[in-house]
Fold each of these.
Amino acid sequence: MTATLLKEAGPQPAAPADHERKRRARRRARVIALAFVFPALLLLGALVVYPVLFSVGRSFFDASGDRFVGGDNYTEMFRDPATLTAVRNTAIWVVVAPTLLTGLGLVLAVLVEKIRWATAFKLLLFMPMAVSFLAAGIIFRLAYDEDPEKGVLNAAAVSVHDAFKDASSYPNARARDGQGLTKAADGSYGTTAAASPGDTVGLGLVGVRAEDLPGDARPAYPASGRKASADELRGVVYLDFTRGGGGEQGKVDRTESGLPGMKAEAVRDGKAVASATTAADGSFRFQGLDPGSYTVRLPASNFAAPYEGISWLGPVLVTPAIIGAYLWIWTGFAMVLIGAGLAALPRDALEAARMDGANEWQIFRRITVPLLAPVLTVVFVTLVINVMKVFDLVYIIAPGPVQEDATVLATQMWLVSFGGGNNQGLGSALGVLLLLLVIPAMVFNVRRFRGSQR
């Protein structure tokens, strides 16, 4: 009877001792959790929170840190041309680098699914992520070197250029003063005395080292003695220099070499009426000339400096060149993340589209990309956060003379604070600006992660 009454009365309140035990257990669990979290909180406060607060406070003081200046550092920041350049370059980085990386990662992730040895290909593209930015900067500083003997990119550019356009064999050749040749404003040389059909002219040049002569060069002396017919004008282009000394300036000596491969023109009334290329002994001839006076001209193309490639690290191309190095490092990262999202796509939607007659481009544009939009957004925003704080590549790859042309906010902050400016107040203001630019992207990414988890 008693048990029946207790059952009908419902659950009885727990004894005070049970409540105390549960409270102590919860308290003990909180203490244990706090003990485990405390080291992480301590590190977070020491390495993140304190530096941020200190930088914010320091930005309101002058370079010495003794005098409060309020917002003067922020005002000065936007009056400084170098800072404005840094803001402009950072904007270029934020727009160009994440866009290219996300696009490349998407294309490569889709293509990798269709090739054999996909794992090896992914490993090859992801490998640059294991290289530090310092090492990558040194690698690309050498690759972008303007000397084709050192820089691999300029070596390739020079090879392609020379394959379609012949380089001059005599970039340093010049005429002696007072020896019958005058230099024009365009770099060509012409005879000072007029010549007529039936004459033979000698055009002596210097400035060519004997070891730089073409292998087929022959002595010019036999050619200088040849007589021209009544309707032709002959000549010889030679190196007016005798090894070991001796010889006569302005006259072809027996041991002097001809300069083969040079272009010569017969000029009358300011127009070239005939042209010829010198033979192995430096000789040339113009045939079928009308009677009258002519000037013999050696065009400027004979003396053009050799093509040296592209100035990758000049003021114009230094920022695109550094972005190219950044792409080399991070393309694998974007490809792997997008590839993971691609692997999770519902295959039935793709197969249904193929059965309905859609081609691969239509499937990619109308199905794959829309379904991957959340992954692409996360990758893009993550890369935006990363490029805002890029420092190593810019500082290492950009040479000193163009450092200001390539500077971004992170490098400008370092240069102003420690790289010669010694103004930690202005540098702290730049750091606060960089933090304010990064926070919206970070908040967006965190919300995307929370949304995906829900």
Note: The chain has three domains: 14-58, 74-157+312-453, 174-303.
Amino acid sequence: MELKELMNEIRVPNKAFGHNGVTVLTPTSESELSMVLRSAQEEGKKISVMGRGTKQGYGGGMEEYDYLLSLAKYKGIVEHTVGDMTVTLKPGTTIAELQNYLKEHNQMAAIDPAWPDDSTIGGVIAANESGPKRLMYGSARDLVIGLRVVYPDGSVIRTGGKVVKNVAGYDMNKLFIGSMGTLGVISEITLKLRPVPKYESLIILSATEDLLGKLRAFAVQLQDSMLEPASLELLNPTLSYKLLNKHAYSLLISFEDVENSVQYQENWVEEHKPDSTEITQLSLQEAKGFWAQFAANAPNSLQEMCDDAEIEGVLKLGSKNLDVFELIEESRRIQEKYDMKVEAHGGAGHGVSHIILKGSETSMKQAIPHIRNFAEQKSGHAAIKHLPFNLRSEVNVWGEPPSYFFLFKGIKAKVDPHNTLNYKRFIGGI
């Protein structure tokens, strides 16, 4: 087979986000994928890798590569062992397709990234994505028990296994999870599963800015209790008003368990909530509907860009979990100082926050360093998750490389010495 036989028409992201390719290739098997990578390395070509394209604005990278390798057609369930609660699937399978399939067996993959209808499991794993329920279930890194990966020279390796109890040597899965496709292309993923919860609810505690300290103290009290919330997500007033019609700081507390357990935890929250805070309770279908709306809120590179006067960007921040309150509060000052719309939310239990910015190019260039500096003062970090390429080329996408960056460079040089895969997309331009 020749590369020209893999050239197909697919839905491609807006080219303004970069990571484009002169030629688009759509392999549908591991052998085709291996052939593409081997041929590209031998010819000295550069490859940009994507699933369906929601994350083309994520990371550094180049505006155009020789090939855009789309895995959108390389999809499907390979093996599902219901009794062992594991599933093996191809990387182009979307999160929605996976969850809909598993629902028939009363099982689920415990992950809730943004845009489940378009986000592929391969892209989620490559970026180590997660959502608000990371507090209970962890990130993509915590679900994977095995991978098949195609190296840039076309060789195929297996990491981990297909059973949950796997203790053979180093956990090589973690080398590729979150590496942004710079070390190899994932061709197969094995995940551990969970049963679908019998019941689910969402409690929303809303508070004015002067009560934010009490809301923080409540979050500490809740995490010190015996309760097991699935999420503890704080929204700034702008996002709270958009999703809940409440112009206040809102703390999203979700519970997933049998109905009696959920009701017990709901009662605890109602009894211990801070004075003067407003409480709203959503049960089962209402909660599911809200989370679906929440997951579709942030912009991605498959959507139409807003008008020329305004630009949308998303930053992903990591911090100590309770520093999220100060980060989200700072979003109000950023909104006022730079005259832009700022929607922010962060996990008060896990410390991962997202800040969605909408404004002029000038305000965007000023706000991004402000956010990063504030996060770094709290011993945290910030990375650009979505932004047009012309702006990403002018700002520091990942921040300063960490002290252990030499390890990243050494691994990249060993695995991909010709910089074939996603060149310049990850930290430090590797």
Note: The longest helix spans residues 361-377.
Amino acid sequence: MRRVLTRAAGLAAVGVLAFATAQPTQAHTLSSSPGHVAAEQPAYFVMTDVTHEQFVVKLTEPADIEHARELVSGETTDRPHLIARIVKRTAPYNPRWSYHTNPDTTQFFDHATEVCDATIPYVEEHLDEAGGAFLPGLVWCDWSSRLVREIPTP
């Protein structure tokens, strides 16, 4: 029974991410609105969690970049956590970790299912298990994640 519930929760998490990434973004609205300029370059942000480790995320969607900047500046506290699919290899902008987030799947959230919750170092320590019962679909949603600053393009 526990295995069935774990699998069901995993599928639910993947479904939530698929639904979230399939929704139209606000990028078109924001980029065509007066006073908003669409970002042409990716932006990089440092994320931390309860472990105080730091992890760099790359954002490419203008609406996500704007939301991230509002979080860092304190302009908003809405949807402060990140959910994304992980890629099991090092990224040049995040060399300390053996994984990074896929910017095309990165979203912000307030609450998510438990099956995708893990800290930055826990994902690293169990990366070989990611995609199975641990982080089904490679969906990661660290409940304690928060952006702390934007960094220059590496």
Note: Residues 53 and 121 are 7 Å apart (CA to CA).
Amino acid sequence: MNRARQAEPPVRFADAEEINPFQLLLDLHGHAVARTPGPGLDDVLTELALSAAVVSWWTRWQPLMIHTALQAGAGLTDIAKATGLDASDVLRRWRRWADVQTRLDIGGRPSTDPIEVRAIERRLGLGVVR
């Protein structure tokens, strides 16, 4: 994902996805600010490629940030307000992420501690449904 920057802005999702995620945000902002009335086809395709890559990245990253907020003591209502999601959507996204991460073996250990996940579930008053 951290490939060297291209000379030309990407017009394909596959190329945009190779850009560092934070650089994607900067590129999308810069592209939108520099846009002129009646943009050409490449300008439109660049914006589509950049924005699609940002959405794809954020979709993968958001559950980790939800987990981080839960670790810090945030409740589902707080996270729902921060994300604009329903609390049930927050919970669904986090549980799906946590299920994968607790089963992911890295050097003989799970990526995320299952005991910590269960503690968060207990704090939230959730039954452990696995």
Note: The radius of gyration is 19 Å.
